[in-house]
Every structure is written in structure tokens, then in C-alpha cells.
Amino acid sequence: MKISTLLKSPGNWTQGFFARDKFNNPVNSNNPGAVKFCLVGAMRICYPDLEKRQDALDKLTRALPRRYKRSGVVLFNDARTRKFSDIQRLVRRAKV
After folding, report:
1. Domain count, the chain
2. Residues 39/14, Cβ–Cβ less than 8 Å
3. What value does the CA radius of gyration of the chain take, rounded to a whole number of Å?
4. Contacts with 14 (C-beta within 8 Å, 6 or more apart), sequence order
5. Cβ(10)–Cβ(35) below 8 Å
6. 39-46 vs 50-63: helix crossing angle, rounded to 10
7. Are 94 and 60 in contact (CB under 8 A)?
8. Domain residue limits at 30
9. Element (H, E) at 85
10. Segment holding 35, helix H or strand E
């Protein structure tokens, strides 16, 4: 599965934690009750193989806007002004 498939709607995306359950409680991304994921949590689900996960992280990092190149995917995802459309655009650009 690709990240773009897992994060198909705003209701599947979260900030501040790898994942959340249907009650919006923070959970580990591999928790069976997880229904919302941040970019890193989604990456952990979609790419369980560490080599493929690193490749996905590299692609996401290369696709980040210039001002986030050094701070990374987590800070991009968790920025207060971040919108789901920004996440979708990044994932599309990274092709993950």
C-alpha cells in the first residue's frame, strides 16, 4: 500500500503523534485500532521493510519545500498551519 492510499482523506491524517484511534487517542501506528496517521506513522504501515521505508523517507525529504529540508518530515507534518492538502501534495510529489 502507498501512503497516498492510506492518507486518502483528512479523516485519516493526524498531527503530533504517529497515529490515533477512532476516539482520537494517541496509539502506536501498528495498533490495530489506529485510523489516523501522520506521515511517519503512515510510512511505518505502508513500508514495514526498513530498506523500503528509508527509500520512502528519502523521497519525502527530497520533495519537501526548501525551508523544511533540514528540519524534516515530522516538523513539516506537525506545523500548526499545515493543511491536509499540503500533505497530499507532498505525497504525490514524492510518489509514495
Report:
1. 1
2. no
3. 12
4. 20, 36, 37, 38, 41
5. no
6. 140
7. yes
8. 3-94
9. helix 84-94
10. strand 34-37
Which residue carries 515530522 as its cell?
74
| 57: its cell numbers | 523517507
If 0-12 CB within 10 Å is exposed, 13-18 middle and 19+ buried, where does residue 43 land? buried
Cell matching residue 55 = 527509500
Q: Write out the three cell numbers for 13.
A: 491524517
Distance of CA 45 to the CA centre of its chain: 10
Nine-digit cell string for 51: 530498506
CA distance 38 to 6: 10
Residuewise pLDDT in 10s, the chain (96 residues): 999 999 999 999 999 999 999 999 999 999 999 999 999 999 999 999 999 999 999 999 999 998 887 889 999 999 999 999 999 999 999 999
